[in-house]
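Thread: "does anyone have the structure for this chain?"

Original post by V.I.:
We have the sequence but no experimental structure in hand. Need at least a predicted one for the grant figures.
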Amino acid sequence: MSMAALETMKRHYRERDLAAKRWKAKGGKVVGYAYTGIPEELIIASGCLPMMLTGEPDVPTTEGDQYMEDFFCPFVRSVHNSFVAGKFDFLDLAIFPHGNDSIKRCYFYLLAEKRSYPGLRIPPLTAFDVLHTRKHIANRYVRGRMAALKEKLEALSGEEITLSALERAIAVMNENRRLLKKVAELRRAEPPRISGVDALQIIGSGVFMPKEEHNELLRQFLAGAGDLVALDGPRLCVSGTILDNTQLYELVESCGAVIVAEDVCTGNRYSDNLVDTSMEPLDALTDRYHARFMEGRRYPSLDEITRYLVQTAREAKCQGVIFNYMRWDDSHGWNYPSQRDALKDSGIPSIVFEMQEYKLAGSEQLRTRTQAFVEMIEDAQ
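Reply from O.Q.:
Generated one for you, tokens below.
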């Protein structure tokens, strides 16, 4: 049963609009969100299906490049291209968070393109503005944006988001996080029981399908965890830019290593921090998605970013860390020297892949560097 559940999750990871198309066929509405940091609980409580919007590494950004310069993060350029090409025209609403400069500006570009070129099949758009400091006044501002998003979703669905509906949605999302934490435990086990490639698909499939269905698949998978084969190889952690595909993990694990943890928004960090059910729901969502959200741009200090990575690597007993940064995604690179030095002080070596494209470029060079890194770790044992 666990393997059947895993294969179903892998299918939803590959066919990312599969659940959305089924949802629409039944008369439901689908709300897409670009990048992480959008309160899925509000979308679920509105009766709509939340769906993360990702790009396509193997598809050239020719159509989108007519309107967007090439100094945007390659991931954002790919997402923008999918909008311009009409691949997200089935969405009833697309939400853009203030995650980074590229994501924010992509929203404004699409808004202008939608107005200037009515023939483009760009769905309705809105923004969720989250400030990057964690001061009290910033928190109160974000609380107002949370209420505004709730009203936007109520207008879309035509129904009030009741207290009971919101509490149910929070319970579903918290259960999803608890189950994903159990998956993370299997990765951190000695020896690990889940590869990094499979883990990315297990975690990621949940952002493309109804959470209740994902929770049931996770339960089935975990129930059969005793049958999982033990894995062998140096234990690695990955840190850096968003990973919404398995290219990098496939390359690294083909070199004999096992990725047992990551400091990446689409990896284990996705399940960090349950929503506090002792608080008023909108306050609790603000607390989780602003004050305690595990995103480097919203931390008050570089020290916290660094401690988080070192703690993640230690808890998973990692023997090395790979830093991976996409071109033009500079904020992660700014953190790198302090993180590298702190890992070194903890006896954990690291390697950095800089200025990467969305489609893994120079893979043979990366493979050679990864193999040398893995061999260095093995020789040190």
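V.I.: this helps a lot. The chain has two domains: 22-163, 184-380.
O.Q.: and The first helix runs from residue 2 to 14.
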